[in-house]
Amino acid sequence: MVSVPIADVKPDIFWHMLYYVYGGKVSHDDLKSHAKEIIDAADKYGVVGLKLEAVVSYVKSTKISLDNVIEVLQYADSKNCALLKELAVDFILENRVEVLEELSLTDIPEGLFAELLAATARRNPIEGSEEKLSTMRVCELRKRLHDKELDFDGSRESLVAKLKENA
After folding, report:
1. Local structure of 99: helix, strand or coil
2. What is the pLDDT of residues 60-90, one digit of tens each?
3. Which residues pair with 154 in a beta bridge?
4. With bands split at pLDDT 50, 70 and 90, how would you rate the model's confidence at 122?
5. Rounded Cα–Cα distance for residues 148 and 62 (Å)
6. What is the 3-class SS of the chain, one letter each residue?
């Protein structure tokens, strides 16, 4: 038997990923306690369903604050975790004065401006904008892609583009 070293993923995280790929269900507790590691591994190896489950668990268990919002944004952007990015953007909008006064915004991801505009449009909708893809929440975009049996992983921009391509 030949062994293949996988140095960039802890054995228990890789086991969870393999278990999932072969039809197993990763427990809620394991998703919660290892969410970020599972997201990293699932993203790297293309296990989209597990990645999305881990992102949901991470979003539910992460408390966004002024201390971590930039880090969360950078991580979400680097892994194309649209739901996590949406959570951080919502925090920025809700706490915009404190964010402007206390944080350096030089390290924010490039595409954040579009995310902020979409979140602002959701908060203050103009008549008819509720059905615009560009302002929908990530969960609604994913639902529409899933209903069309299309891939629903990626950034907000890629989700919108897939829906437009397949309209």
Report:
1. helix
2. 999 999 999 999 999 999 999 999 999 999 9
3. 81
4. confident
5. 31
6. CCCCCCCCCCHHHHHHHHHHHCCCCCCHHHHHHCHHHHHHHHHHHCCHHHHHHHHHHHHHHCCCCCCCHHHHHHHHHHCCEHHHHHHHHHHHHHCHHHHHHHCCHHHCCCCHHHHHHHHHHHHCCCCCHHHCHHHCCHHHHHHHHHHCCCCCCECHHHHHHHHHHCC
